[in-house]
């Protein structure tokens, strides 16, 4: 109670009149359990709505410091929101318009390179198939001859059916390629499924765009509604958590944007001598955008460059692979540690599991909230659990206990 009173004074919350809280009836917990069960059962239908709401909150918190500073000049939030939205829209439209031509040319080159590479890949496969067919024909003749000799020796007159070599050749030559074609079809999915997923993503993005606009214009009712779901004695803690999240999200978004610009520009400079200015510009844009995807982004950004390199042939694919490996090493050891502050560093294992969880729950767009979700969970854990049950345990104490559990000791602890 004393800590709640201190938090109430520090946060400037009004002094609500105290009310006596009575024990909740058993019906309350029954209804709560029924609501949770219904939410779990209908999560597949509610996940796009929940994802859109989370993206709106995260983007609004990331842009809110800019709106707050401009609000001091204009006296309101509508004009700064309109200016920020118009500026971002203009930048995206101009970038898309300027990159449409190079992107179209690069897509055409990739689409031409892929069939050529697939044709070159099929040639050794066809040779292997033909050798297998010849070996199968020889084996069939030998087996038929051996069976015929055994029948003559036992004076049996059974007729041994023989498979025509032409039918065997046709069947064997088509089996492996048919399997590969079926595998690629299953991998990429049907056109209907791709179109449905694309439409779903488009609807979510449009919803998030307008949601962010209205949220930035007047965010207080939304946060007030969130606080109204909590009992008043928990308002000080909820306010502290929201303030910490509100400080972390803009810093994380700024560091992520700076990392995207750095990686995109670096890939552009390194790909320029290999593919030329236009293709390097497109590859840099792809690498910069996919930098927002934790861990998988750099791997996915290397695929278009490798496809273009395969079209050129020679040692180009090897050089491109080495360049992307060097960029990845430089990013992990120099760029990210320099850009990310100490308080924003997240454990890679936690981010990986968060990515898997968010993708399973929300689909492809779930990767956008994976990293901030880890930070939010950590903030909530610090405020609600650690300060109550581990008030005197520091990070150094936890690290020391972990070392003991792993039978490890640092040199200064010996």
TrEMBL record:
User: In the UniProt record, does the keyword Transmembrane helix occur?
Assistant: yes
Q: Where in the cell is it found?
A: Membrane
Membrane topology, record value: Multi-pass membrane protein
Kindly provide the name given to this protein in its UniProt entry.
AI-2E family transporter
Q: Which residues cross the membrane?
A: 26-43, 49-67, 79-100, 187-216, 251-275, 281-311, 318-339, 351-380
Supply the alphabetized keyword list: Membrane, Transmembrane, Transmembrane helix
Q: Does the keyword Membrane apply?
A: yes
């Amino acid at each position: 109670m004393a800590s709640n009173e201190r938090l109430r004074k520090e946060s400037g919350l009004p002094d609500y009149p105290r009310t006596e809280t009575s024990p909740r009836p058993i019906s309350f917990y029954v209804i709560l359990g029924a609501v949770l069960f219904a939410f779990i059962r209908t999560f597949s239908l509610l996940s796009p709505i929940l994802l859109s709401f989370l993206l709106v909150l995260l983007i609004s918190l990331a842009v809110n410091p800019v709106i707050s500073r401009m609000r001091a000049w204009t006296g309101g939030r509508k004009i700064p929101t309109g200016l920020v939205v118009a500026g971002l829209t203009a930048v995206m439209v101009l970038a898309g318009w300027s990159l449409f031509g190079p992107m179209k040319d690069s897509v055409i080159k990739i689409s031409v390179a892929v069939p050529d590479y697939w044709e070159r890949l099929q040639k050794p496969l066809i040779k292997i198939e033909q050798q297998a067919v010849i070996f199968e024909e020889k084996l069939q003749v030998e087996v038929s001859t051996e069976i015929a000799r055994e029948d003559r020796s036992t004076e049996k007159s059974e007729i041994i059916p023989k498979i025509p070599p032409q039918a065997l050749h046709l069947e064997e030559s088509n089996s492996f390629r048919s399997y590969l074609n079926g595998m690629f079809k299953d991998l990429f999915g049907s056109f209907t499924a791709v179109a449905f997923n694309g439409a779903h993503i488009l609807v979510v993005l449009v919803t998030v765009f307008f949601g962010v606009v209205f949220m930035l214009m007047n965010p207080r009712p939304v946060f007030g509604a969130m606080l109204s779901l909590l009992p008043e004695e928990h308002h000080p803690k909820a306010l502290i958590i929201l303030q910490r999240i509100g400080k972390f999200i803009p810093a994380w978004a700024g560091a992520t944007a700076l990392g995207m610009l750095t990686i995109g520009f670096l890939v552009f400079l390194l790909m320029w001598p290999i593919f030329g200015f236009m293709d390097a510009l497109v590859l840099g844009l792809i690498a910069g955008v996919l930098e927002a995807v934790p861990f998988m982004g750099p791997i996915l950004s290397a695929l278009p460059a490798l496809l273009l390199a395969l079209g050129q042939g020679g040692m180009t694919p090897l050089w491109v692979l080495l360049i992307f490996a060097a960029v990845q090493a430089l990013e992990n050891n120099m760029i990210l540690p320099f850009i990310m502050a100490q308080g924003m560093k997240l454990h890679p294992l936690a981010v990986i599991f968060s990515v898997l969880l968010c993708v399973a729950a929300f689909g492809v767009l779930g990767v956008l909230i994976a990293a901030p979700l880890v930070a939010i969970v950590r903030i909530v854990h610090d405020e609600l659990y650690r300060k109550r049950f581990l008030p005197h345990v520091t990070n150094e104490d936890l690290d020391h206990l972990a070392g003991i559990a792993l039978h490890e000791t640092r040199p200064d602890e010996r």
